[in-house]
Amino acid sequence: xxxxxxxxxxxxxxxxxxxxxxxxxxxxxxxxxxxxxxxxxxxxxxxxxxxxxxxxxxxxxxxxxxxxxxxxxxxxxxxxxxxxxxxxxxxxxxxxxxxxxxxxxxxxxxxxxxxxxxxxxxxxxxxxxxxxxxxxxxxxxxxxxxxxxxxxxxxxxxxxxxxxxxxxxxxxxxxxxxxxxxxxxxxxxxxxxxxxxxxxxxxxxxxxxxxxxxxxxxxxxxxxxxxxxxxxxxxxxxxxxxxxxxxxxxxxxxxxxxxxxxxxxxxxxxxxxxxxxxxxxxxxxxxxxxxxxxxxxxxxxxxxxxxxxxxxxxxxxxxxxxxxxxxxxxxxxxxxxxxxxxxxxxxxxxxxxxxxxxxxxxxxxxxxxxxxxxxxxxxxxxxxxxxxxxxxxxxxxxxxxxxxxxxxxxxxxxxxxxxxxxxxxxxxxxxxxxxxxxxxxxxxxxxxxxxxxxxxxxxxxxxxxxxxxxxxxxxxxxxxxxxxxxxxxxxxxxxxxxxxxxxxxxxxxxxxxxxxxxxxxxxxxxxxxxxxxxxxxxxxxxxxxxxxxxxxxxxxxxxxxxxxxxxxxxxxxxxxxxxxxxxxxxxxxxxxxxxxxxxxxxxxxxxxxxxxxxxxxxxx
Length: 620
Ligand SMILES: Nc1ncnc2c1ncn2[C@@H]1O[C@H](COP(=O)(O)OP(=O)(O)OP(=O)(O)O)[C@@H](O)[C@H]1O
Fold this sequence. Notes:
- By secondary structure, this protein is of the alpha/beta class.
- It has helices spanning 2-11, 15-36, 38-70, 75-127, 131-134, 137-146, 149-180, 184-228, 233-238, 242-294, 300-346, 404-411, 434-439, 455-460, 470-480, 483-487, 509-523, 539-554, 589-595, 598-611; strands at 362-370, 381-389, 393-398, 419-424, 427-428, 441-444, 527-531, 558-562, 574-579, 582-587.
- Among the domains are: 2-346, ABC transporter type 1, transmembrane domain (ABC transporter transmembrane region fold), CATH 1.20.1560; 449-524, Rossmann fold, CATH 3.40.50.
- The chain is built from 20 helices and ten strands.
- The longest helix is centred in the first third of the chain and has 53 residues, at 75-127.
- It holds the Pfam family ABC_tran.
- One of its GO terms (molecular function) is ATP binding.
């Protein structure tokens, strides 16, 4: 998959590749900064270039000061002659300090903006992808790794700034050194190469480890969140699952610790080798400098400047190598983020497409076959041909796993069939404008979302784009029979439905379900899909909800009803019976009952439960 190719690319990254990639990295940091805040980006760049130049001028001025001080003549005269150069050094230091302050301020302003821009883009793209992408394990992994990209992009800003600064300072020091004596430059490079090698090796190992361990980190985070999640809390306590989860958490943490220890050991070894190499190169550098002095090939004042230039140069080269290395490390995470941008754009729900008929009469499935992406099980739907007449109540019936939910997901455009077509009065849904199609659907899914907001928002979120009016809200609550639910809430519609927050309230399963139906009613889609709408309702509430659903269809609304309660299906205009992804029967409830097929059999089983005599208690 994508991410592992990426890791391989990094594994091949050597010093030369790092240097050649540097301009691209700096440019991408600058582009992000430019997008976030142009003025701040300009200020940082100008200030850093200015600071680098100031360093060169300051080195030359120091050279001139040393030359004057070590020249011939009276000490007082020598001092006097050095004054202009000393004044230059002081002025340059002042300018450099001012530039540094400007750069610090602008960088500080840029950083959070860059992170926000990158995060917004991440969330925006992630929210727009197809459901199949969200359910795809590889895409999820990318979502996971890419989430660090935004903070990396933020960190890249000061690092890139530092790289520019160190680079210019280094060029200044190297230029001065070359002027002083050509032999000094290669020595400077030799002194710094070991740290470059060690920093690169360490970063490469850390990154490879991260990519191998990312799944492990995810799983361990999941386990720790299970231990604190309110939904899991009752079962953890009653079934005593806590110690089991803790044991797993500890085992996973210990494995991760062992990996950290391995990395630390390798880091220490690499650092030691680099330190020995640097030490030898430093000795060689100063020995060369001494040799040049002894041979009379270099004046003492020049040697003094050379020592300063070598120290400044090697410090800058070291900093440059470390910063370039960190920049690469962060860039790899930003790379994950950029790959997510690209992949999410490729897997986004397409925009535009054919218009659907204004008032279609039927939605027709023609030889539809669908297998869930990545699944090697039998198709969830096989060669399915059926009609959903609009403006009616259509019930989907069948045993668990027969494909009912899958069918409505396809009808809602959440998935596309691999074979066959779904036609809205002759317009193929595959070519239709998907966003427009979704506009028409209101859905109460089996596992519909409990939003951690107020009751009001929990209903109105059904059509978040519409202005929230009390009239529409009350109408929807009425349509779902949810007025009592709201009346019982401590702060009515303003009650926060999130127990984990102060003032939050928890609804019962049935209350939640009614609010879910109110949300779908609020949406006012022309097709209402209700998947097991009464699973959590008591007998009276169930009757009431079906009554309401029936009333909705009376207003011209299409209702697609999935339920196992066959007594509730008797008001449907049409029933499709599915079995193992295939359509086995279709007709009105009466037709199906008299036919004596699967529907009649299931109906008989349910009715039989009520008719069966209750066994008498044993008497002792
Ligand atoms: N997201 C998914 N990924 C892979 N397979 C899935 C997914 N959802 C459902 N399936 C499989 O597709 C088949 C049909 O499932 P579906 O949920 O449509 O059945 P259903 O008739 O609605 O069942 P139930 O009555 O239990 O709700 C099942 O074999 C199920 O395991």
